[in-house]
Amino acid sequence: MTDETWRGWREATERALYGPGGFYLRPEGPAGHFRTSVHASPLFAGAVARLLAEVAEELGTDEVDLVDVGAGRGELLAGVLAATAGSGLAVRAYAVERAGRPDGLDPRVEWTDRPPRGARGLLFANEWLDNVPVDVAEADAAGTVRYVEVLPDGAERLGAPVSGADAEWLERWWPLREPGARAEIGRPRDEAWAAAAASLAAGRAVAVDYAHVRGSRPPFGSLTGFRAGREVPPVPDGSRDLTSHVALDACAAASSGGADTELVTQREALRRLGVTGDRPPLALASTDPAGYVRALSSAGEAAELTARGGLGDFLWLTRRVPGPPARGQADGSGPPDGPADARDPPGAPVGAPGPPGPWPRGGRAVGAGPVREILAA
Q1: pLDDT tens digits, residue range 164-174?
Q2: Does the pTM exceed 0.85?
Q3: Which of 6, 21, 173, 300 is 20 to 30 A distant from 309 in Cα terms?
Q4: Do the beta carbons of residue 351 and residue 76 sit within 8 Å?
Q5: 92 - beta bridge partners?
């Protein structure tokens, strides 16, 4: 990029990630730059498959929708379809992604740039919200909170004072009281999550991300870049991922006012779904050596997914969406109405970057700790 125009971080990130030649739209994609829980182990897809089965049971149907928001190259959907094969569960799979459909993807997966309306089942967004572009704010020497502007080479300056809805969001969720304090203004993420959750007719909407909650915000924000397996400065030139931790408590309030909404660590969420990281009994090594080796390998993968200070500290935001049976069907198994219309914000590609590299991205939820709470507004 050679443009020397000063822009707010929201606009600059949109161009760098999703504009012409942007990081997520380049032919090679983000493969090899980082990996997510999806790539760390097939245990993650297996856990999502069990969650999907739970939702189907709640809905009283064996035909259920799975909407993967920020689907990357469709790895999670492929894993869940494989895990549910032969289970008697009929899965209608939707990949929500702004990048093009990859070659070789299971033809059962419908590729779309926004969530379908009226889905009944599970909407799952793994590391999507962290890549929804947001503006950055900083308090100047006099305490006035201003937008941070940036050039494609990463140079920054302070711009106009933050006002309107952005100022209201900061005051409620992330007030900046000291000169030099910075924050990512999460309002676009709140709106994106609320729109995604609202697309469900019934079931659960789940967002998984590295995140923080009120009382534990990072004092200087968390905007950063990732390239070739390393954390690098956040330069909006299209050469790297741009990401920041998510104020998931604000997202929760935006979608439901706190009702039927839960926020827990990935460690807790996966343990509920049978992914514990416990080592197999040593006696198994004598009676079934091959089985012991397989179980030990699985335990290692589970340990990575649930590790403190790593992927286990990610937060899972769950919104339960009760609903009546679908039109004309007592069991509610009818298909959704198709993609939402153009008035809805499009899905943003996130986090599922093709073949796994050796590096997790972001592996720590800033200030999250062992959060387990039902949220209030």
Answers
A1: 999 999 999 99
A2: no
A3: 173
A4: no
A5: 65
